[in-house]
Amino acid sequence: MTSDPTAPAGPALPHRLDGRVAVVTGAGSGIGRATALVLAAAGARVVCTDVDGAAAAATAGRIGPDAGATAAALDVSDRAGVFALLESVAAGHGRLDILCNIAGIIRTGRVVDVEEADLDAVLDVNFKGTFHACQCAARIMCAQGRGAIVNTASGAIDAATPEIMSYSVSKAAVVQLTRNLAAETGRYGVRVNAVAPGLVRTAMTARHYLLPDGSLDEAAREAAEKPLRRMSPLGLIGDPEDVAYAVHYLVSDAARFVTGQILRPNGGVAMPW
Ligand SMILES: NC(=O)c1ccc[n+]([C@@H]2O[C@H](COP(=O)([O-])OP(=O)(O)OC[C@H]3O[C@@H](n4cnc5c(N)ncnc54)[C@H](O)[C@@H]3O)[C@@H](O)[C@H]2O)c1
Predict the structure, then answer these.
(1) What is the pTM assigned to this prediction?
(2) Cα torsion 269, 270, 271, 273: sign
(3) Do both 210 and 250 map to the same domain?
């Protein structure tokens, strides 16, 4: 023990995740991939999952087997598949500490034009996929007496953005699921929160600015980003890591007093100012 009065007092900052077992959905791209990498850098053993199994494997490969990363193909809308994956992770590691529900899709179309099949597809992945994983993980985590879940909403919950009704509704449902589950699981030591990111540069957003040859139309992207950048007090559009760091905070012990919350990594866009 040091008696140096200038030494920093107290324990190390509680952001490390050493030894914790984390499952990330949608880990093959964008925010999910960045989250898997950040959690692994903090010491977690990350199970990278994605409907695109090769993409999940690529993310796990970037982390490396020495860090305990593994990969699995998982369609979150497949309830039986979600339960099988989470139960096998918990059985194999003897624990499930962290679940990050990040997989998501978007379909565009005016309310008057939306096809029921498109509405179903978005709800099946974004809302029901999150629900399936939350339900299974909550059972495991409540039984073990600890755990942290982070779901992914969107800035769309705060606005009436034209032509993305299905997506906005699915994300609003994720918010309410998050709050309800947090209210039910807190007494068992399980915290449940969500992030609601603003515009983030990922494959999901880039596909709106692609030229016929598949390359990025920089002018179209700039035209779409400019008004949002102007609405941000920080003048920023997000990178996937900006959301991943918020998720990292929420699953860490630094957030032990935080549950049922919706954290908005969005450059301050939705903040009245
Ligand atoms: N990019 C943004 O501006 C933004 C803003 C707010 C919220 N979000 C949300 O963040 C999350 C991640 O989005 P992103 O921008 O990184 O998109 P992305 O397209 O880069 O990544 C989404 C990942 O989810 C996977 N996925 C799709 N359907 C799946 C399914 N049925 N089962 C499992 N995996 C599936 C995809 O294969 C992909 O790897 C989504 O929930 C999205 O709605 C994104």
Answers:
(1) 0.95
(2) positive
(3) no
